Amino acid sequence: MKETILKKFQEVFGDAEGVKCYFAPGRVNLIGEHTDYNGGHVFPCALTIGTYGAARRREDNRLRFYSMNFEKLGVIESSLEELVPAKEAGWTNYPKGVMWAFGEKGMKVPFGMDLLLYGNIPNGSGLSSSASVEILTGYILRDFFGFEVSNQELALIGQYAENNFNKVNCGIMDQFAIAMGKKDNAIFLDTADLSFEYAPIALKGAKIVIASSNKKRGLGDSKYNERRSECETALAELQKVVEIKGLGDLDEETFEKYASAIESDVRRRRAKHAVYENQRTIRAVEALKADNVALFGKLMNESHVSLRDDYEVTGIELDTLVEEAWKIEGVIGSRMTGAGFGGCTVSIVKDEAIDGFIDKVGKAYEAKIGYAADFYVVEVGNGPVTL
Ligand code: NG1
Ligand code: MG
After folding, report:
1. What is the domain partition of the chain in residue ranges?
2. pLDDT at 218
3. Atom number of ligand 1 nearest to Cα 126
4. Of 14-18, 194-198, 260-264, 325-329, where does mean pLDDT reach its minimum?
5. Nearest to residue 141, comparing CAs of 74, 83, 72?
6. 112 neighbors 25 (Cβ within 8 angstroms)
7. Are 338 and 216 in contact, with CB atoms under 8 Å apart?
8. Is 129 annotated as a binding residue?
9. Model-level pTM?
10. pLDDT tens figures, 211-232
11. Reported ipTM exceeds the 0.85 cut
C-alpha cells in the first residue's frame, strides 16, 4: 500500500520528495452501543483495515488535500488561516477539524502540509472512517511538529474536533479505540473516567465478520443527537430521586426501582437500553475472559434486541442482516454496530460456517431489501503507525 500511495502522491502533487507514510485503523464495537455518551462501558477493537496517508510538511501555511476515495474532487486547497468550524460539508473537515483542535488546545499548527489519503474501510459504514482520518491527522501533526501528546490525548483532540468543528455530538469510543488499538485485543473502556483494560480476543475457531448494509445513514446524525438528548432528559429526571452522574451508574435493579421518575415511556425505554446495555457489556467482557464465547455471543444478541425495541436505532436493513444471521448454525452472536440507522452488523461466526453465512445472509438480504450487502472477515489490529 505504501508504494501505491507514494506513486499517487507523486502523480497528484508533482513529486514525492520528503513524503512520509502513515496508517490509522478503523474500528468495530463488539458490544456497548450508545453507552459512550451515557457514562457507560464500551468494548471496541481496532481493525487491520483503515486509512493510509502520505504527507509532507510545507514551508508555508497552505493545505492541499487529496483523497483516492473521492478522486473526482481533485486537489482541495485551503490554508491554516481558513480553518472555520463546519463552514462547508466535505471529507476535508476531518483533517481540518483536527488541525483546528490542536490550535484550540494551545498547540498552533505552524506550517501547512500536502496530504493524500486512501481508506479501505467501507465508506459511511459505521466502521468509523471519520475517526480514523482524525487520528491519522493527529498522529501526523505530532510527528511533524513534535507536539507532546499521548495517543489517549490524540483521541480526545479527535473527539473535540468532531464535536466542535463537525458538530457531531459523539462520545469518545471511536477515537479512543483507534488511537489505543492493540493487535488481537479489544478495549474495555469505562467512558465515565476513561479507565480501560485490554482484553484478548481469542475466539478459537471463530472470526469477526462485518456485514455492511449499504444503507446510508441519512438522517442518522440528527436521530443520534435526538437519542443523546432523550438520555440527558431521562438522566435529569432520575437525578431528582437518585444521586448519579450518568446512566452508567445504575444497574438493572436500581434502574427498575427509580424508573418511574422518568415521565415518558419513550424516554424510559431509551434509558433502560443505556443501563442494561452497560451491564451487558460488563458481563460480556467477564464471559470472554472466562473463555465463555457462547455467553458473549448471547449477550451480543440481547444487545441487538434492546437496540431494536427500546432504543429504536436499527431499521429493516440491520434487522434483516441480524435476524438472518441468527438462523444460521455456527453464528455465535450477531448485532448491529455503531450508531445504527444503517451501517454495519458485527457477527462472531465459526470458521467452517463463514462461507455459508455470507452466502445465505447475503441472498436473503438482497431478496428482501433489493440491493446487496457486503461482507468482511476482519482482524483485530494495532493503533496508528508510521509505515
Ligand atoms: P458511528 O456509528 O461510528 O458513527 C457513533 C458515535 C460513537 C457511539 C456510537 C454508538 C460518532 C462519530 N460516533 O458511532 O461515539 O456513540 O455511535 O455506540 O458519531
Ligand atoms: Mg463506571
Report:
1. 2-201
2. 62
3. 2
4. 14-18
5. 83
6. no
7. no
8. yes
9. 0.94
10. 999 987 665 567 888 999 999 9
11. yes
